[in-house]
Amino acid sequence: MKHLLSAADLSRDEAVLIIDTAAELAAVTDRSVKKLPTLRGRTVVNLFFEDSTRTRISFELAAKRLSADVINFAAKGSSVSKGESLKDTALTLEAMGADAVVIRHGSSGAPHRLANSDWIQGSVINAGDGTHEHPTQALLDAFTLRRHLRSGAGDLSGVRVAIVGDILHSRVARSNVLLLKTLGAEVTVVAPPTLMPYGVESWPCHTSYSIDDVLPDVDAIMMLRVQAERMQAAYFPSSLEYSRMFGLDSARVARLPEHAIVMHPGPMNRGMEISADVADSPRSVMVEQVTNGVSVRMAVMYLLLGGMQEEI
Asked: What CATH number is associated with residue 105?
């Protein structure tokens, strides 16, 4: 395996290997020296055509902890803003000797175009493409779920997860549905009809139009941000109405099983899809998700670039 483009590309064994590797690498963050020499001499390029905070910094920190040289490339202020194509940008990076390109792009399929061309010889890692996928987010979510619900070992067989919110525009939802299914979890996506994707019945998950119906029966609930920047029409009457019908507040959390955890990929709209008291409650694992993201991205780069391709 040379690239990570989609959660669907991973078999159960490959996904478990990445999560197991991340668990081992997580111990590095507890050391006084938080670095491994694994990728010394390798160059990782963060190629971000969309704004990002968590994902870009997470990939940068992961690469640096593996001793790689990191180049951060933002479309704003670069030749892309002058009209340079993805091909020419990629050829420039290849000429500079990039061993891996982490790409976030507003167009669905851009990482696949990069990986399936002769523009880049190194590995391509999808850090989010349009409304399509975000596979490393799904991996870190699975890692977090396993730590809390499976004693940190094996797959996620039998775990019940509800993903609630703007499913239509969410690459996180798509990747999570695919990966969690591969790992044996039972997933239900919950949204108003206007925010449910066309063809969702073909996804390997259940669907519901009521958050209240799923609350008593899940081990984890993942709230998604309403992506207003991707919306070209009115998908619900008002923010207040959406929050009343699909928001997670303390009254709804009280209906969850005692062991259930609350997740959010971030950034969150406090007071809309999730109330502030729930976001800051002991049940919330959102800060831990960010921490786990570094370990998971270290594992992905370690396995793709660290001479262990045959193992994955």
From this structure: 3.40.50.1370
